[in-house]
């Protein structure tokens, strides 16, 4: 890998970007409201960044939100505008389960989910779209939820700030100077827990860059991909990675008939 320059969109305090930095990438951060910027005023250079990643605001797409404002859609469009303008070799989008899927011209894409409980004893489910110009995709794990002690950090979390840092995978001396306690908790609650962002960076190194990385390798012998579009590799004559993939594909077929 020669070009290790990445652009982080909607970075907040960028727990997602930290996972990439820890794995040798150089991360440039676009403007964020919490540091007085606005993505709507941002124009990236073309063909400079190897990868673009980020998670736009998800409140509108949360299952419990009965009054979406339209802001989620607007910011999703901003994400797509910037990826299209910067033309990276790959992009990664992160959000909650219900975000509306999008397709960017020229990119081969997959959609998959990861849960923090596959890595630690706290749970948080996150959904991703990965796309690449070359057509090279990722083979993410499908873990199983172990017994969990609780959920990941929330904005108004009653647990102590130190406990919140620990749950999100941050070091014990982590701090955000000048933020109020509730502001600090909100900023880290917005973030992708570090065990997930580290895993994603390693996954991209292993499957996209074909580098040797330090987690168990389950490279495919045959490269058949699950027909649901999640991009996971299926073996032998299997068409789907599992029952949930089969159901998803069926829902997609039913939707396309209506
Ligand atoms: C889900 S958080 C991102 C968290 C980050 N990915 C991480 O892992 O730490 C979404 C971010 O989008 C920012 N945001 C919302 N509207 C924005 C806008 N118009 N321009 C720039 N940033 C915006 C919020 O301030 C928030 O930090
Ligand atoms: Zn699938």
> What is the typical, i.e. mean, pLDDT?
91
Give the CATH superfamily of the largest domain.
Vaccinia Virus protein VP39
Helix content range: 25-40%
CATH topology of the largest domain: Rossmann fold
Number of strands: 10
Overall 3D shape: globular
Question: Can you describe this structure?
Answer:
This protein is 28% helix and 17% strand. With 258 residues, it is an alpha/beta fold. It folds into 2 domains: 2-147 and 192-220, Rossmann fold; 223-258, no CATH class. A 6-stranded mixed beta sheet has the order 2-1-3-4-7-5, with helices on both faces. A two-stranded parallel ribbon has the order 6-8. A two-stranded antiparallel sheet has the order 9-10. Helix 1 (15-22) packs across helix 5 (194-208) and helix 3 (161-168) packs parallel to helix 4 (181-190). The longest helix has 16 residues, at 71-86. The N and C termini lie far apart (45 Å). The model is unreliable at 217-222 (pLDDT under 50).
């Amino acid at each position: 890998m020669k070009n290790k320059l990445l652009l982080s969109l909607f970075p907040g305090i960028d727990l997602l970007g930290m996972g990439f930095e820890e794995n040798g990438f150089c991360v440039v951060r676009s403007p964020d409201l919490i540091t007085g910027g606005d993505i709507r005023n941002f124009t990236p250079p073309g063909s400079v960044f190897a990868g673009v990643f980020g998670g736009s605001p998800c409140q509108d797409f949360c299952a419990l939100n009965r009054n979406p404002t339209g802001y989620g859609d607007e910011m999703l469009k901003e994400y797509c505008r910037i990826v299209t303008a910067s033309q990276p070799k790959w992009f990664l989008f992160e959000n909650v389960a219900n975000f509306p899927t999008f397709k960017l011209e020229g990119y081969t894409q997959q959609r998959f989910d990861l849960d923090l409980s596959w890595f630690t004893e706290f749970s948080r489910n996150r959904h991703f779209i990965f796309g690449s110009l070359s057509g090279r995709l990722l083979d993410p794990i499908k873990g199983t939820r172990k017994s969990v002690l609780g959920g990941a950090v929330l904005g108004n979390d009653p647990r102590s700030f130190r406990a919140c840092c620990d749950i999100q995978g941050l070091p014990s001396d982590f701090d955000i100077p000048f933020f109020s306690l509730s502001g600090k908790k909100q900023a880290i609650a917005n973030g992708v827990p570090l065990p997930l962002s580290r895993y994603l960076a390693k996954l991209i190194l292993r499957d996209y860059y074909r580098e040797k990385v330090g987690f168990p390798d389950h490279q495919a012998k045959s490269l058949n991909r699950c027909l649901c579009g999640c991009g996971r590799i299926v073996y032998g004559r299997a068409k789907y990675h599992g029952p949930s993939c089969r159901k998803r594909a069926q829902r997609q077929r039913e939707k396309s008939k209506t």
